[in-house]
Write a structure and sequence with these properties.
Helix content: 25-40%
Largest sheet: 7 strands, mixed
Bound molecules: ligand KE4
Order of helices and strands: HEEEHHEHEEEHEHEHEHEEHHHEEHHEEH
Number of strands: 16
Strand order of the largest sheet: 4-12-11-10-9-5-8
């Protein structure tokens, strides 16, 4: 019998490109039919056919306190009754700026937007306005949203400026973006020696979640900080994913590196559309209406979205919240590695705070080239076996996974039991 899921996917494709509003949701990387959901509560999701799943996507990070947390829902319902939007300042935006500044002190001034892409796009523009320079540096495997200047792949030669990584991005735009290998201090130093004084900014995921999870070496982050300081380039930590996820103060608190600017998203909206960028006051004062860098948004600081974010940020400040989240996530990783070892499958895994990476390779990767050596076919078998068992992982071997405060020991145990079965399936396909 055709499932409601299959019917919806078939019909959606007539009016929505690929049947989805964001490409990763289409299951193109893993194959099969994407799941349409209708309800979430705590760590669980239910699809349109009523099947239950333990959710390790958490809407790609925002649902850190679990789906439909009663306090978040109640706060949103209450504020929504006063109108959904004014297009004018509200006290809630000040409260959000104060909360972010308290938890991420390097963000001396903050502006709210409606997505992570808007946050990174705006941060790069204000850094270019501040320095009067055009060149931008990013790292292979890092994703910072879909602004033109960020959809750029490494140039043909070492240390050459970029080529478009998407149709529709003009070569002239890509030429201002240089892509370096992550965790490679030598190439970073060579670039700054060659072009340091032309570089407006460097944007980095301080813990990468978009080529699967990749951790930085402390030497790499320190070299990056020192070189940006020496050459007057703005160091932007893209903490859209790591913000409030790996530590209450983000990756910058975890690694003790102070960026010049930070971008945020996901958790600060609690599931509703909120992004933010901010940093040094001397840089942020270049923004309109004070300065000459223009940036704007009809729904920036939307009161309903900000309320969902404020309540979420209040809940994650509970004592031991991140300690418990880190412990729970490590339990999952340890259990999965033990299961793979027991069954005899080549597998590694690691976590940082409430995010984790799973790899069908001997060791955890440290850069994009190493990620690409992971057995993608094995991941796809694993993904579908877990999905059949009611475990919802990111539909790509190149995405990090997320645990929420609502994931119980029972959820972890169920997940590990499902993984043992999935590892057996992988062995049987070898
Ligand atoms: P959004 O524009 O999707 O809100 O944020 C873009 C973005 C910026 N920076 C980082 C570090 C991010 O991880 C993201 C978005 N993350 C992806 C997950 N890989 C969102 C999922 C999707 O594209 O549908």
């Amino acid at each position: 019998m055709t499932s409601q899921n299959q019917i919806l996917f078939e019909q959606s494709q007539h009016l929505i490109p690929g049947g989805v509003n964001s490409p990763v949701r289409a299951f193109r990387s893993v194959g099969g039919t994407p799941i349409f959901f209708k309800k979430g509560l705590g760590s669980k999701l239910w699809d349109v056919d009523g099947k239950e799943y333990i959710d390790y996507i958490n809407s790609w990070g925002p649902m850190i306190v679990g789906h439909a947390h009663p306090e978040v829902i109640a706060a949103v319902q209450a504020v929504a009754a006063n109108s959904l939007s004014f297009g004018a300042p509200t006290g809630l935006e000040l409260e959000m700026a104060e909360t972010i500044n308290k938890l991420v002190p390097s963000m001396e001034q903050i502006r709210l937007v409606s997505s992570g892409t808007e946050a990174t796009m705006s941060a790069i523009r204000v850094a270019r306005g501040f320095t009067g320079r055009s060149k931008l540096v990013k790292f292979e495997g890092c994703y910072h949203g879909h602004a033109d200047s960020l959809l750029v792949k490494a140039g043909s030669g070492l240390l050459t400026f970029g080529e478009p990584d998407s149709a529709g991005v003009p070569a002239e735009v890509a030429a201002n973006t240089l892509t370096l290998p992550y965790n490679n201090v030598e190439q970073l130093e060579a670039l700054f020696k060659q072009s340091g004084d032309e570089i407006a900014c460097v944007i980095i995921e301080p813990v990468v979640g978009n080529m699967n999870l990749v951790k930085p070496t402390e030497a790499f982050l320190k070299a990056l900080r020192d070189l940006c300081t020496k050459h007057g380039s703005v160091l932007i930590f893209d903490e859209v994913m790591t913000g409030f996820r790996v530590h209450l103060g983000g990756a910058q608190a975890l690694y003790g590196i102070k960026p010049d600017m930070t971008t945020l998203g996901k958790v600060i909206g609690g599931g509703l559309p909120v992004g933010a960028f901010g940093g040094r006051k001397d840089i942020m004062s270049g923004l309109a209406p004070l300065g000459k860098v223009y940036q704007a948004g009809t729904l920036s600081g939307n009161p309903v979205a900000v309320t969902a974010g404020l309540k979420t940020l209040e809940l994650i400040q509970a004592p031991d919240f991140h300690k418990n989240l880190t412990v729970q996530t490590q339990k999952l990783v340890d259990g999965l590695m033990a299961a793979a070892k027991k069954i005899g499958v080549t597998f590694s895994a690691q976590s940082v705070g409430g995010m984790f990476g799973l790899y069908f390779s001997e060791a955890c990767p440290t850069c994009f080239d190493e990620v690409m050596t992971s057995d993608k076919a094995a991941f796809n078998v694993f993904f579908h076996s877990m999905l059949d068992s009611g475990i919802y992982l990111g539909p790509s071997a190149f995405e990090a996974g997320f645990v929420s405060a609502a994931h119980t020991d029972g959820d972890i145990a169920t997940t590990i039991a499902a993984a043992e079965k999935a590892f057996q399936v992988i062995l049987s396909t070898k």
